[in-house]
């Protein structure tokens, strides 16, 4: 069933072309690809904090693991401290005002637009002064309407829709390390809120396409807003990539959705009910509006006046996020997946190499992601795989088959991937790229529908029916990251080996976990794993011994996994980002206290959790936690 990961090799990191090494955005210096070994400024920072390698050749997991637990707290190993920072509702530091959070959730929509959004997810740190001062860019994936207003959805007004839209998107906050603590700098010239109403440009083959034109935007070039922003990637040219994941839940269709709408999961009943006061979310009146969401968006956090761009060459889907590396020739390769049952894993290869540039690297590479080839993955039973190009006119992607031009292939990337025979995966979440080994890891969080009546059955890459536990798959590209074939294997099957149901037993070497979601590889080569078990599932049955959601560290060479952090009640753990010296780690705690029904009861906001404030009149708030080693050393050593 599962391939083992016994075939390991050295992890020689000297040729690592990770984004941290090829770019120093703080200085706006971007060096040409292939020169990583001589990258003095960034490499010096890294070497000052790099921990020793383990005797077996992998990175050392130099901390004492924490036990699975169910406390309403963030628990980290002895010798570490985790401090909440910038919870939902904190002012981001815009010059326009500093509205403080009101614990009864009575802040207005206008105030929310100047505050941290809800439900923090992917994040990255962009240096301004090395590891002492920088920008923290954070996705705010969604809103819990039961917590966002004092009375929840008892009444439903235009003001409430506006507040929900303002609680979504992305925040840019300046932070600094002062007297041993990270704190926000307010006001800051960099501070920015991007919400569901912020203007975005469109780039790539679907820009100005007929499928993108609306009454408000007859040229199909300017979209208002981004939302459902889940995971995030940092580019070597100093920008931020955010996925637009579950955009389908924001639209309301006719009683019978069109075939195109059905393929993207749109339906009559909108979970967020924005359409009741904002007609562009009613697809009967505005049928092309959903086509303008489901993209990877690119933001330049260093330029608060820049117009962010939706990169349509990367295809449309429920993108979890996007992760970038470079080929030896300097071409950008962007990996992404769709976190939806039986959807796909994608790779984009830019036509042009990244431009080496000093100041203005983002501008010099402003069109890099607009030209290139998008591929979708097919995992074959023999352990090999193919990247299938989504190129108009090739194979089934013709006008006769419903794809009029390259733009339509991108808008209908799911249908194009169906036609190409790509492999339907168990909900691809984050990917992590190990440039030293040409390996890419992908978390397949779970898919309980696999093998059930009417659903696709198991296959080599997704081998468990009723996959409640999830797994991590990895592959090695042939030749370089732009290779069209790869060799794949299961890295780990998550789950408790003591489970009665064979399909829920895992092969974890070390601390148990289930439902991998976030993945990140740090500069020492440690693979960090965030989990996202649903509140309905946690603490019972197959999940009984796994505790709250957690973050684990893994040595990819040995497969050893050790629990590093346990989150508060009913949260999920999201993201991991570091300062360049590796001595501060930022992790997002998302939806502490989320009830099993997914939407909080406004009458009982503290029923499940009161983290991080623990006020008698408070409510749980998503927040970043800043993790430091008490001796100031690198995280994980
Ligand atoms: Fe937003 Fe797939 O988690
Ligand atoms: Ca996720
Ligand atoms: Ca998830």
Question: How would you characterize the overall build of this protein?
Answer:
With 637 residues, the chain is mainly β. The chain is built from nine helices and 33 strands. Strand 29 and strand 30 (560-566) form a beta hairpin. The longest helix has 10 residues, at 40-49. The chain is globular, with a radius of gyration of 23 Å. The two termini are 35 Å apart.
Q: What's the shape?
A: globular
Q: So how many helices?
A: 9
Beta strand %: 25-35%
- Structure classification: mainly beta
| Helix percentage range | under 10%
Index terms:
binds MU-OXO-diiron; binds calcium ion; 9 helices; disordered N terminus
SSE layout and pairing:
Elements: H1 19-22, E1 23-24, E2 29-30, H2 40-49, E3 80-85, H3 109-112, E4 120-129, E5 133-140, H4 145-148, H5 158-167, E6 169-178, E7 181-184, E8 192-194, E9 199-203, E10 222-224, E11 229-234, E12 240-244, H6 259-263, E13 296-299, E14 309-311, E15 323-326, E16 331-337, E17 341-343, E18 345-353, H7 361-364, E19 372-379, E20 384-389, H8 406-411, H9 413-420, E21 425-426, E22 428-434, E23 439-444, E24 471-477, E25 485-493, E26 509-510, E27 516-521, E28 527-531, E29 550-554, E30 560-566, E31 572-578, E32 584-590, E33 623-629
Parallel strand pairs: 9-14, 26-30
Antiparallel strand pairs: 1-2, 3-33, 4-5, 5-6, 6-7, 6-8, 9-10, 11-12, 12-13, 13-14, 15-16, 16-18, 17-21, 18-19, 19-20, 20-25, 22-23, 23-24, 24-25, 27-28, 28-29, 29-30, 31-32, 32-33
